[in-house]
Amino acid sequence: MSNKIPRVVIVGGGFGGLATAKALRGAPVSVLLVDRNNHHVFQPLLYQVATSVLAPGQIAAPIRGLLAAQENTSVMLGNVTGVNAELKRITIDANDQTGVEIDYDYLVLATGATHSYFGHDEFAAFAPGLKSLADAESLRNHILTVFEKAELEDDAPRRHALMTFVLVGAGPTGVEMASAIAVMVRTTLRKDFRNIDPATARIVLADMGQRPLGTFAEELSEAAKLRLLQLGVEVRLGKPVQSIDEDGAVVGDERIPSKTVIWTAGVAPSPAGKWLGCEVDRAGRVRIRPDLTVSNRPEVYVIGDTASLDQDGRPLPGVAQVAMQQGRYVAKAILRKIEMRPPLSPFRYFDKGNLAVVGKNFAVLQSRGVKISGFIAWLVWALIHIQFLADSSLRFSVFLQWLMTYVSGRRGDRLIIQGRKTS
Amino acid sequence: MSNKIPRVVIVGGGFGGLATAKALRGAPVSVLLVDRNNHHVFQPLLYQVATSVLAPGQIAAPIRGLLAAQENTSVMLGNVTGVNAELKRITIDANDQTGVEIDYDYLVLATGATHSYFGHDEFAAFAPGLKSLADAESLRNHILTVFEKAELEDDAPRRHALMTFVLVGAGPTGVEMASAIAVMVRTTLRKDFRNIDPATARIVLADMGQRPLGTFAEELSEAAKLRLLQLGVEVRLGKPVQSIDEDGAVVGDERIPSKTVIWTAGVAPSPAGKWLGCEVDRAGRVRIRPDLTVSNRPEVYVIGDTASLDQDGRPLPGVAQVAMQQGRYVAKAILRKIEMRPPLSPFRYFDKGNLAVVGKNFAVLQSRGVKISGFIAWLVWALIHIQFLADSSLRFSVFLQWLMTYVSGRRGDRLIIQGRKTS
To answer: Fewer Cβ atoms within 10 A, N terminus or C terminus of chain A?
Structure first.
């Protein structure tokens, strides 16, 4: 590599990393984006893959393809294992080799988050989460399989456990997943079986807090709760999950026999803090400075779900918008440094608003004082999500699929695919 | 179950089993279709999933959905392990239980075929085949992964091995797969990489026979061979594959270093012959009578790839058309027996013709004396395949996807998804 062109290494091809890379298009830097997957996933729609509405390829796009036209950018499939900030070097596992070293002039860690079981790691085996395409496909396989088993099960208690779904965590993912299952069992699956009626499935949404969608205004939480109850979802609030095993969960003091417990309650950041050996917050996220760098490392940026930054006395939420805005900020900040111009003013998140879907035709929307729930909010949700899907070719296909599922109740991707090998 | 309504048990939801079930719609029988997968796969397009053109959901449909409107039919997810023809009973593994027994009045075994390595089972680990959605997804993951590794590989011989593809077997699947890879590396992947040029990939198609597409007329084999050479595919004929290991294959006396060997050379029938303990042909397929039943078992039918029947002195080929025509024949034959009407005249296969695609814009077509190759044959191929896709909602989506890939060279489903769990 020439010494003249600064090298920007971005780790992670999620919303933050991709936004950084795209904002560096045509800039006088050499960009390398490293991700352990070959694709960017539109995470807010993972629940639709898990409930057979969309195919994995409709919410994911190969990172290479997204950045192919950017001549200053290359993409590497690799798993980062460490950072040597002193030597400005990261180590990765790639191409079947461990400890491959890559030098950087600027480093952007956008490595996201995974599930947190709040110290109950033993729950993990029985209550998977929903963070990756593989998670979503596993859940799709599982949900379809429990109905197949229920159809063949003569023992009533076992049949009920197969047809009971427990969602732990009533944030957007838990609410969307619970309502999507409720809609699926009453529409798509209704006519498929002869011995069971999928519409009788029991769906329980549990949270320790006192209301669903805790980050929304109280009136919207109420609207969402009402809608969930209308959809037949049992909402259990203020009840901690005491235990989870292969036969179900104990929520408060109620044992719920279930073969499907889904965990959406907590997230744990990537090990970026450990790699850097720097200050982290209680959840383990890297405490970053208002210019999104790490203390004493003006060339190391940390953004998105793995970073912790307060704004107006409150931590920024772990949402796509924060990561994307941070990514674009970082790209500008790096260019300023290279061009020896004065630094940017500190990062400020511009909150465009929040949306969560509750089943068909219903969403809650909160944006800069506006609070609405119902069909209009749902329409806004659909339009915004089509708009934001990273790859233009995906938009049309998702739109068509939604239209078809909306009108007919059919779900195209109702496949249980077993035994795939990976290499 | 009432004794008055005869129970038809169909094993296998491929072309043969599905055709039987559909032809029994509204008939005075109770139909049970058992398959170990929840979906019917349109096998002739598996190679397009393996080469990232189509998504799994575009060539597969849930069997329940396909038969949901047929009130006399139920579907069961289960793996058949044996047949007791004396007691008219099959045993299956289903719902985590082994040895579940199911009684039948009529049995239709349409259990298809798997790969055969002609006694070289040790090849299986290094040369997967292409029979199921899981196979196709594994290959897709693998093909995309070797390019990712090649991009990072400094050692030239290792890089070349990563970019070399060996197809064993020059039947339709081998020819279609070889040409599809050739098109993919020259279009879709071309701009994705910085260190390698995917278009320089080496593609070798090997067969023991003297020509590709051996079941077609010689002039069409010649046309196909010419087209393969134009696409840059190396065609090795009359050369047996001596060995296959993790570093490549020995074809004739040439060692070809390769990280991707794909086996399309042979098929082995399902164990239907063993279950029935009846006469089989050299390949292990059940020898059936002209009415598609097994000797001395007028209530047991065997159809499709797992059956062996001669017509005009030659065995019927293992193609979808044979299985579908047999399935419809069996449905009629069963109804005749139930209604005490005279039996049907013996089964006769009506050969509508054969088609094979060689890359973009080129196919060979042979049908009742007509032999054409080139663009017109390719158009016919595209129309017929859209027409035959089992599920009407799939047709439109496949058509759109093809149109997009045809015009832009883009492939939507270029995803490496790792670590999915099955339950």
So the answer is: N
Q: Indicate the number of domains in chain A.
A: 2
Q: Check whether residue A216 and residue A283 sit in a common domain.
A: no
Say yes or no: A218 and A304 in one domain: no
Task: Considering only the beta carbons, identify the residue of A68, A397, A415 that sits closest to B38.
Answer: A415
pTM: predicted TM-score of the whole model, two decimal places: 0.88
B131 and B108 co-located in one domain: no
Last residue of a domain, one of B306, B338, B370: B338
Q: What pLDDT digit, counting tens, does each position of B323-375 carry?
A: 999 999 999 999 999 999 999 999 999 998 889 999 989 999 999 889 999 99
User: Residue A77: its chain B contacts at CB < 8 A?
Assistant: 145, 148-149, 151-152, 416
pLDDT digit string, tens, across residues A228-264:
999 999 999 999 999 999 999 999 999 999 999 999 9
- Does residue B132 sit in the same domain as residue B228? yes
Domain, as residue range, for A238: 121-265
The answer on B362 and B222 residing in a single domain is yes
The three-state DSSP-derived secondary structure of chain B is CCCCCCEEEEECCCHHHHHHHHHCCCCCCEEEEEECCCEEECHHHHHHHHCCCCCHHHHEEEHHHHHCCCCCEEEEECEEEEEECCCCEEEEEECCEEEEEEECCEEEECCCEEECCCCCHHHCCCCCCCCCHHHHHHHHHHHHHHHHHHHHCCCHHHHHHHCEEEEECCCHHHHHHHHHHHHHHHCCCCCCCCCCCHHHCEEEEEECCCCCCCCCCHHHHHHHHHHHHHCCEEEEECCCEEEEECCEEEECCEEEECCEEEECCCEEECCHHHHHCCCECCCCCEECCCCCEECCEEEEEECHHHEECEECCEECCCCHHHHHHHHHHHHHHHHHHHCCCCCCCCCCCCCCCEEEECCCCCEEEEECCEEEEEHHHHHHHHHHHHHHCCCHHHHHHHHHHHHHHHHHCCCCCCCCCCCCCCC
ipTM of the complex: 0.83
Please give the positions of B annotated as active site: 176
Q: Which residues in chain A are contacts of B423 at CB distance < 8 A?
A: 138, 141-142, 145
Contact assignment for B420 to A138 by CB distance below 8 Å: yes
Closest Cβ–Cβ partner in A37, A77, A141 for B422: A141
- Residue B210 sits in the same domain as residue B300: no
